[in-house]
Amino acid sequence: MAAEQIIFILVAAVTLGAAISVVTSRNLIHSALWLILALFGVAIFYVLLDAGFFAVIQVIIYIGAIAILFIFAAMLTRRVMQETGPQSNSTWWLGALIAVLLFAGIALIFVNWQGFTTTASDLTNPGGRIVQLGLALVSPDQYLLPFELASILLVAAMIGAIYVAGEKKQ
Amino acid sequence: MNFFSDPITFIGNWLGNLLVSIGISQQAATVIITFIAAGVVGMFGFSLVIFTIWLERKLYARIQDRIGPNRVGPWGIFQTFPDMIKIFTKEYITPIGVDKVAYNLAPILSVSAVLLIWAVMPFAKTIVGTDVNVGVLYLVAMGGIGALGIILAGWSSNNKYSLLGAFRAVAQIVSYEVPMVLALLIPVLLGRTMGVNSLVNAQSVWFIIMSPIAAFIFFTSSIAETGRAPFDLLEAESEIVAGYQTEYSGLKFGMFYVGEFLHAFTISALTAALFLGGWRGPFAEQIPILGVAYFFIKAFIVYFFVALIRISMPRLRIDQMLNFNWKFLTPLALVLLIATAVVDKAFYLVIPGLNISAGLLPWARAAVHLGVNLIIVLVTVQILKSHHISTVKIVGKPRPVAVAPEPPASVIS
B101 and A30: CB-CB below 8 Å? Predict the structure, then answer.
């Protein structure tokens, strides 16, 4: 077994364990901490896949921004230091049903997928991948439209947040 | 390549050959040497802090017309060692009701976030931890982890003042990341790369000459990220005891303290690397050890300014701090980013027709960028002038302070 495989199995185990702890932990902040560990595991997968750019972006966006926002929001709730309330409500079966269906769907796709048995070809031009990504995001025949749409969505969300939070002028 | 011109690479090669010769495979030897090198860089960072703590205390003292540490060793230079031993012997006090895991994790996170930055620090052309091709983004990511450490410390202490400190930390550190990232984009744009060592390589003209505004924004927002005066609202002693580190004692407090000092030196070194040409200097290409010397001279010059600003500036109010970020630094950084991108593109479109010799090309480019920067500075100053406060605005009538009642007659007589 190569060193990379050992690392992969260890990281996968930690990531899955952390992901399970996110939903089973009774303390909101502890859930957020486990989430950070799980996201970090995903970042390590990116490193193992030789995608350093995505690994760093994963840490910046998910840990540096989203997880901190989660923690910040949880800190503002009352009685955050205590383990409060039941973990599920009366519609837990609906969530479970959707989760099972989703898992079944993904499993169905993966069973018929050839990617597990074929070996991926090595990526060419390791230094220029970021350049290729950047060009792909701004060239009209590739991903310009989704990129701009995502930007508009974010701007709309930002304007909405400012409107909600802003002072009302009578 | 001999010992005197490049000792680190020399020792690394020697150790690698030694490990291979005693029967370890080449791959395993590389792993072992990488671990040793990582340990050496980490230990080096910590040892540097021992010196910078003394240096800053001494500077502090001289500015306040005191002598400062002067008992242990010449000029008190070993003063930090007794302090260190003292903090090792202190008791760990864990208050009731703290969240144990987060409480103990926070100091580790906030030190390691700073120490991890040293992994991409280019000491010389050949002496660099790892030149990842997304080094600049890596710096930003580590900043996020540092913020996480502070937030956890504040929340897990189960203390109102700690929590207030953590709220301020979010307001400050997360906000100041915005202009910092925007300012970091300018060297990336000018150097056409994201690796920190490649950026140093690209600075045939220092980036502080090409874009002084970017250097200023990066420097200012980095100081805000460290949470030191004048941006020390996270631990404002006069308002919230000691902020997020109120409940910490012993070595756990020491971790925050070391982390803060290390961060202060780290941002100086980063400013030196990204804007002051890092290890570049006469003969640095041929003799890498000279590059290390240039790098540290530049870093300590910047560090002197960081310390000077800390010592001589009063603390900002929280609204001033946020206004300065959102209404001044961020718009300025956005304008600068757009202007730099457009001008750089236009420069390379125009340049083939102008017939400038290849040797002068970087300097011509620098002059154009410097001109754009100066125009932006002039416009900014004009806009600021038109908004200056001419009179003190009275927002409310002064309320009478509590007046002591007249003492009864029996007391007076």
Answer: yes
